[in-house]
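Workshop exercise sheet. Pairs work together: one partner reads the sequence aloud, the other fills in the structure field after running the prediction. Swap roles for the next sheet.
Pair: D.N. / O.F.
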Amino acid sequence: MKEIFKKIIIAILTLEAKILLKRTRPQIIAVTGSVGKTSIKDAIFEVFKGTTHVRKSEKSFNSEIGVPLSVLGLPNAWSNPFLWIKNIFDGALIALHPHEYPKLLILEMGVDRPGDMDKLTSWIRPDVVVLTRLPDVPVHVEFFESPEAVIKEKKKLVDALKPDGVLVYNQDDEKVMEVVQTAFQRSIGYSRYSLSPFTASADKIVYEDGRAVGFEFLLTHLDRAVLMRVNGSLGVQHAYNYAAASAVASVFSIDIDAVAEALRSYVPPAGRMRIVRGIKDTLIIDDTYNSSPTASERSLATLGELKGVKRRIAVLGDMMELGQFSIREHERIGRLIPHSVDILATIGVRSRGFSKGAIEAGMDPKNIFEFDNALQAGKDMQTFIQPGDVLLVKGSQSIRAERFVEELMAEPERAEELLVRQDPMWKTIA
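Structure field:
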């Protein structure tokens, strides 16, 4: 019964969103890929919000229910049937009387299962598609036959691009490049490790009083280079995010100086390598939004680059939705850990593969701690950490690693402001 109700809700909201788009005809920027979708979407929105009437997908509303909600500007009603019914009536009113509808929509579009992108592209034709990255083992591969099947599904968004549309793509990714070669529309690349129309370089961590506070890099376009500063967050992924936003901005005749100015005071979303002050004069790198093999590699590399650190502690939860690749990938990431980590703490059953890989790579088992859940890990680690320690905290959504951060952050009263999944509905989920 619940599944039937869900299908009815999705069908009605999709119809309303489809009608709304036909009546208002906004330009659409659609973002897809296996990592970085939300961060790139948010960076693009930050560039446009001061000059254009623009709307973005809230949080990670990127599914067959999330995208219609984003188009209609409606909230997630979670498991409340009365609020879903209210959404249907509100959606009908918006579709029939859109008033001053945004001129630009920035939509995050993801896939969990085969056919998901078909459902979305049956009624959405983007003006710009941003293709972030297509790694060897993408998250959400669990319900697909192979990683190649995931790539094929995501490619359908490129196929749906309008004939006069523009494809913005990560030029450093070989699998993305294979997709680009099949597109006939105009394309613009961005990169960090190759020369592209928007090339990031000279990236480095920014320190104040010996503590990491952000990240900066040079972004070069044609014969011009600007300094880009990322506030309160770390990692080379931000160079990709800002370069992608700059490439999209160029489609709308916004130059890189204006992009740099628009992003100057921007702080990336919570749970994406955000810097949080910890108890006992420690530093927490909060990467608790989600986890995948590619993102874990990047996070560990950033941890290893930090200077002035007493001990580097990696707190890693399960990487979910990897299907047949789960054991292999947990152990593979584990073998990378001793290169950048002094202490390893794992959360969840699957993450014990990190421990196995780390020991195989030479890590002393005495420096490895295993926990069943994030809350208990946070309580136990309070007595273990020391001033000057840096903790990287990462795990897939269901691990709820933000609960670990809340236990160790210096200002727990700011949890709602600084951490992911703090709305009341998430608080009720175990």
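Discussion prompt: The longest helix spans residues 2-24. What would you look at next?
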